[in-house]
């Protein structure tokens, strides 16, 4: 059996299993999309949002890229945030990184990786902001993991600094932004306690409302 044949067969079996458990599932799913969560995560295949949250299709709107970065010039990411906030009216935006992230690790290496180096420069900036903190890490692996956390904190701030999110707060829309990190080794999520629920939690320089 070819790869495509195998994947289509997997899909058929999955759909049949869902319909056996809940005959109206796909009818309801096709009628509307009303997730309360926007997940901004890493492209790493080992960090699937729905599965690790144990939520069904339709319950999480997802954007993924290398090292879960939110850049103010990335129209792809910003478009996802805008649609999630303004159309879907999500109540939570979760930026989730993961320990041992290959993108973060590559950003800490003094070597060339090709086109991706232009993307990793955003993570190098996070390193530049926190050099003293990272210098105290006992070894390189610990430094990578701490960088994974600091990168999430930075991207939470970047989400909150967008006019999309701040305009939602201005309009009185309930919206909270969270920073989490995931351990692939044990499957457990960690809350980094950097949640933001309104402009009052932001420094004045970044407020636009």
General description of the model:
The chain is α/β, with parallel strands linked by helices and 209 residues long. Helix content is 47%, strand content 14%. The longest helix has 21 residues, at 140-160. The chain is globular, with a radius of gyration of 19 Å. 27% of the residues are buried. The mean pLDDT is 94.
Largest sheet: 5 strands, mixed
- Helix-strand pattern: HHEHEHEHHHHHEE
Q: What is the averaged pLDDT score?
A: 94
Helix count equals 9
Strand residues, percent: 5-15%
Count all strands and give the number.
Answer: 5
Shape: globular
User: Roughly what percent helix?
Assistant: 40-55%
Q: What multimeric state do the chains show?
A: single chain
Structural classification: alpha/beta
Sequence of strands across the biggest β-sheet: 2-1-3-4-5
Straight-line N-to-C gap: 58 Å
- Residue ranges: pLDDT <50 for 5 or more in a row? none
Rg, alpha carbons: 19 Å
Annotation keywords:
alpha/beta; 209 residues; globular; 9 helices; 5-stranded mixed β-sheet
Helix and strand arrangement:
Layout: H1 3-21, H2 25-31, E1 37-42, H3 49-53, E2 60-65, H4 75-87, E3 92-98, H5 102-107, H6 116-129, H7 131-135, H8 140-160, H9 163-170, E4 176-182, E5 189-191
Parallel strand pairs: 1-2, 1-3, 3-4
Antiparallel strand pairs: 4-5
